[in-house]
Amino acid sequence: AIPMEMTASYLGFDGSEYECIIARDITQRKLAEEERRAGEEWFRSSFEYAGVGTAIASLDGRWLRVNQALCQFLGYSEEELTQRNWRDVTHPDDVELSAEGRARLMAGEIPAFEVEKRYVHKSGKIVWGRQTVSLIRDAVGRPHSFTVQISDITKRKEAEEAFRRTEAALRRS
Q1: CA gap 98, 102 in Å, rounded
Q2: N or C: which end of the chain has fewer CB within 10 A?
Q3: 63-78 pLDDT per residue, tens
């Protein structure tokens, strides 16, 4: 079967009416639509099931879209996170850590930046993340939003702190 688009109309000619039917093969259009749908599904699955926290944030810092890994890392539901911005979940002492990176992204000086910083989990505990941020531009090159990936590095930071404490204790003895 070939997908077709048909248009029918009536024409009058020499006192008689004729039905005119135009049939157009739309196979290529259907294939392109299916490829687009498959690409959207692939992106959605890649985003949602990524092993690291992934988000799209507005230029003013609101979470527009978040995945389950980010929700688990921060302890919030998707609905709760999308009602907040990144400042709401960043440790107060670390809010300005990524300001320079964001400014350089907006100026087009760098394609992405990384920073390690603390976040405040919904439970109140402090968790550490390695954040990578890239700027998404619209079709004409204007800044549109940020894509953010956050890897949980809490265990590494806790191990580093335990090592520092042990090392300090050994120096004292």
Answers
A1: 6
A2: N
A3: 999 999 999 999 999 9
